[in-house]
TrEMBL record:
PANTHER family the UniProt entry points to: HTH-TYPE TRANSCRIPTIONAL REGULATOR YBHD (PTHR30419)
InterPro entries: HTH-type_LysR_regulators, LysR_HTH_N, LysR_subst-bd, WH-like_DNA-bd_sf, WH_DNA-bd_sf
Family: Belongs to the LysR transcriptional regulatory family.
Coiled-coil zones: none
Domain HTH lysR-type: 13-70
Pfam family, one: HTH_1
Organism this protein belongs to: Mesorhizobium qingshengii
Name of protein: LysR family transcriptional regulator
Alphabetical UniProt keywords: DNA-binding, Transcription, Transcription regulation
Superkingdom in the source lineage: Bacteria
Length: 319
């Protein structure tokens, strides 16, 4: 008998032949096997012969007084029992498996991503899939895009200055920036100010506050206000820019909707311009070539659905 190629055997084998062979090996008789299987004896004999032809080895040595499995027959029987034992456990195993989504999600965000939409997506994801876990890393927008492009992050949320053709973009929300000062600043508490009152004032800002970067509208406003050319402090972190403003290092830009509570608490003071503040769009970045686990897919699809179903007007945060 010619031996079949291993990869061919797996796909060409009639698994019913294995089932018949297991019964033959257990009852040690073609006749008794036919009775157990409710088949005619010639059908069982034919099944054994076809299996032997398929594996290319004799499986049973038998005559009028003897019925024994060959060494190959014993090996095939043992392996077949394991296969059918595994299959027999499937109903029990499937009953023990729920539809719970597990896995880890790596989200990269810019520090000033403050959005009820994003918060809602996280809340709904955790409520629906409590066994999944999340890591949110904060970085400069350029680093966020890099992590998404390199597939180190499940997705990213950040400002965008130049689009990467390898990534997909969806606007999450639009925020507006204003200038603020802290309680120690000379302009704190003053009303009726104009942009001219800010001329020559020292300032702090974000690292992306440049004409050629993501905060270009803020940089243009800084130029229009003629703030001091010497920026006292910079950071990629909103929290640290806020800290420097509150500490009195200088005037600085913050998203209006983020600074609202500090203004109400007296920690920050809003400065001009009060009309037509610069607008900045925040985007969801996705790498379509990244293979995602179930948790990543669930959170991303949930966030995308919220974005799609929320009108743009409700995603514009005027402060």
């Amino acid at each position: 008998m010619a031996l079949p190629r291993p990869e061919r055997l797996v796909w060409d084998l009639d698994w019913n032949l294995l089932r018949t062979f297991v019964v033959i090996a257990e009852v040690k008789s073609i006749t008794r096997a036919a009775e157990r299987l409710n088949l005619k004896q010639p059908s069982v004999s034919n099944a054994l012969r076809r299996l032997e032809d398929r594996v290319g080895r004799r499986l049973v040595e038998r005559d009028a007084t003897r019925f024994e499995l060959t060494e190959v027959g014993r090996l095939l029987y043992e392996q077949s029992v394991e296969v059918f034992g595994t299959i027999s456990q499937l109903p029990l195993l499937m009953r023990g498996i729920s539809d719970d989504v597990t896995g880890h999600v790596m989200i990269a965000t810019a520090s000033h991503v403050v959005s009820p939409l994003f918060d809602q997506a996280l809340s709904e994801f955790h409520r629906n899939y409590p066994r999944a876990s999340i890591t949110i890393s904060v970085a400069a927008s350029t680093e966020v895009a890099k992590q998404v492009r390199e597939r180190r992050a499940s997705f990213g949320i950040c400002l965008v200055s130049q689009r990467d053709p390898a990534l997909e973009y969806a606007m999450v929300y639009r925020e507006f920036f204003g200038f603020f000062c802290g309680p120690q600043h000379r302009l704190y508490g003053q009303t009726g100010l104009t942009l001219a009152d800010l001329r020559g004032e020292p300032s702090v800002s974000f690292q992306t506050d440049h004409i050629s970067d993501a905060l270009r509208p803020v940089a243009l406003l800084r130029s229009e206000a003629r703030l001091s050319a010497d920026v006292v402090g910079v950071s990629s972190s909103l929290e640290e820019v806020r800290r420097m403003i509150v500490a009195g290092l200088g005037i600085g830009p913050l998203p209006l909707h983020v600074a609202r509570r500090d203004v109400a608490d007296g920690t920050l003071w809003r400065l001009p311009p009060y009309d037509a503040p610069p607008a900045i769009d925040i985007f969801l970045l996705v790498n379509p070539d990244k293979a995602m686990n179930r948790a990543e897919k669930a959170l991303l699809s949930g966030l995308q659905a919220l974005i799609a179903e929320t009108p743009l007007g409700d995603r514009v945060y005027n402060g």
